[in-house]
Amino acid sequence: MSISSKDSPSFMTHRGIFISFEGIDGAGKSTHIEALAHAFEAQGRAVTLTREPGGTALAEKLRTLVLNEAMDALTEALLVFAARRDHLQQLIEPALVRGDVVISDRFTDATFAYQGSGRGYDWKTLLYLERLVQTAQGLEGDFVRQPDLTLWFDLDPDIAAARLAGARVPDKFESQSAEFFRRVSGGYERRMQADSKRFARIAADNLRDVVWQHVLQAVQQQGWLP
Ligand code: TMP
Q1: What is the 3-state secondary structure (H, E, C) of 75-135?
Q2: Angle at the Cα of 113 (from 112 to 119), degrees rounded to 5?
Q3: What's the pTM?
């Protein structure tokens, strides 16, 4: 008997699903994050919507520091990983155990893209911190927690800058140059090359409805939505 995507084990047993959205500032993730949450809720799934840095009381405090204070790249990396540790322990892992769909506006790829490629911090040290912070216990032993699917909103930095211009007072990252964001995009590309099955690259310069169709298709291909 063939198994249609609707009948796939993840759909029937309600195991937790972890989805992250990534992209440079101004790539236009927000409305699609909300729409995807609604699409899952319409199927009766519980959704935990969250973001990084942030998602818990402690991590939100660290977010305020990271986004507003000047610091060197290692300090920045340590703070975002500290925030991630708390976020995983307090919010993400328990939600996955409950069987929720966890949708996070950014996760660990952002650290490689921003602190690694954007700010030029050592990639290998970030890989070490990633392993340290994201190791979780599974039925078959320890593993490094990653999203099941990462939707990378790929957008030319000049278009992103035009979208952001005048929208609000820019934070520390939003006020960076187009050159910085070109490096950040290169960092996302490098992460995708290293783990291509986890990624769906979304061309974010399309009309909103077209972008949404691509987001939906990427999730449907996993068998998580009918
Ligand atoms: P946002 O929530 O408005 O996208 O802002 C978060 C900012 O923090 C964004 O500019 C990307 C940056 N950031 C890092 O530099 N490193 C990280 O690990 C994460 C999660 C975000």
Answers
A1: HHHHHHHHHHHHHHHHHHHHHHHHCCEEEEECCHHHHHHHHHHHCCCCHHHHHHHHHHHHE
A2: 90
A3: 0.94
Give ligand 1 pocket residues (Cβ under 6 A): 25, 51-53, 67, 80, 105-106, 110-111, 114-115, 173
Q: What is the pLDDT of residue 14?
A: 58
Q: Are 199 and 152 in contact (CB under 8 A)?
A: yes
d(CA 21, ligand 1 centre) in Å:
11
Cα dist from 74 to 6, 79, 97, 211, whole Å: 44, 9, 32, 35
Structure tokens at 144: 């490094």
Model confidence pLDDT, tens digit, residues 135-173: 998 888 999 999 999 999 999 999 998 888 877 788 999
Q: Determine what percent of the chain is predicted with pLDDT higher than 70.
A: 94
Q: Are strands 17-23 and 47-51 parallel, antiparallel or unpaired?
A: unpaired
